[in-house]
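Budget justification, computational time. The allocation requested in the original proposal was used primarily to generate structure tokens for proteins on the priority list. As evidence of use, we reproduce two of the resulting records. The first is shown immediately below.
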Amino acid sequence: MLDTCCITSPAEFVEEKHCRQRESSSNKTKQLEDMRHRATDVAHPTVKSKRMTIGRTPSSAKEFRIVPAAVNRSHSCRLSRIALVCNQTTAQLKDSVYNLHLEHLTSQELSTSFRSEFDQKIKSLELSVEDLCESNITMVNNQWRQHLYLLKKGDKVKTGLSSELTSTRLMLLDEVQKSSSEINSSLASLSSQLAEVVALLKGLVIPKRGKVAAVSRKWESSSDDRIRDSSSKHRWF
């Protein structure tokens, strides 16, 4: 498995993948060449032949190798096996890289989906808070309006009651004044009538002794005092 902790973006991931593929392919080709040379040198030693030519020294003779067909077949089989192993490893590497790339993409998709859901939830929460604030503000305004209406209504009722009280007070004062004037007039008429009655009694009664005269005088003085007291009381009221 590849280490993807240092990968920060898909472009860097792809670039690193290509670099690793090139390095692995170059290493594999070098290994294959080394293995091929070793196999040919160890299993099949070279057979050297010298051909003498006129006008040429022995050092200029050509060297050649004689390799039988069986050796070529075994070498080709080994190369095919190595190629199969390399193809399998490259396929596994490609699958692992593809899976890692898919995991990276899925993680990006999950992060984007989470962000979108989070943004949607935040927006819905903000809208609900705004609606709640508006509803509370309207409710408070309605309550204040009702309170002010009741206050105005109470002021109107107070003014009406005060006007009614003043009117009733004036009416009662007028009635009291009228009744007091009537009482005073009636008392004056009664006092005049009593004076006439007293005068008649004085003319009719003949005092035989001084006691009768004293009694009549006392009765007259007491009647006058009563009349005066009653008239003074009515006037004060």
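The second record produced under the same allocation is shown here.
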Amino acid sequence: MSFLKNICCSCMSRPQVRSSSEQASKPVTISVRSKSLQQVKSLIDLMQSIGESKDIATEGVFRESGPNTEHRSSVSHYRRNSNSSGFEHKFESDNILVRASALKELSKPIFTSDQVNKLAQLDLNKDKFLGEILKNKKTILYNAITLAIKVEFQKDHNNMSFNALVRGWLGTEDAIIGTVEDLQKLSAEQLLEAVGKRERVFKNLIDLLEHAKKSSQFSKFETIGDVQSIDIALLD
């Protein structure tokens, strides 16, 4: 995902520094759930391998039906619990890019049903996968972009706002897409035009969706009340 580093110069020239209140926000609890232990481990490994691990203090909990068993490692604390089926891993991160404002935006659907239907009907570079994923999982596109942006930029762009990162990734130099609300106002055609301004960006979008499908296989993010949390329910 090195392509995310090549954001437009206009966005990099206008960094937005977060307030002290944002920086002092509580750590974010991230929960990963699946019936497959391997899926959970794969996503945790993926997040750690691309830079999250240095900002994570973890206590992982894997729950599986059967006898109670405990496993400890230098990274996480794993526990099997006979009271529930499936597996779960929870950890906290104080990574500044995973913050309250971003989490609230993650919980909003990026497309209306009308936009999803129009996008699914368009000839998206003759790529059926993108059309189907938009039709069936209308939030995965924005969530995949957001996850990649947060992880990729954590080292060098901590002074940039979440929306600036989104704007930079989409390559909208005129900044017509600056917030989630701006994105929601666009028609399907306008959104596709914005993403397709550069062929490279459009290709990377498809690559990113393929990467999300094959590597992490997550289906949703959600926030629970005022609790700063991300809930990643993996596809079985």
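A brief technical remark on that second record: The longest strand covers residues 28-34.
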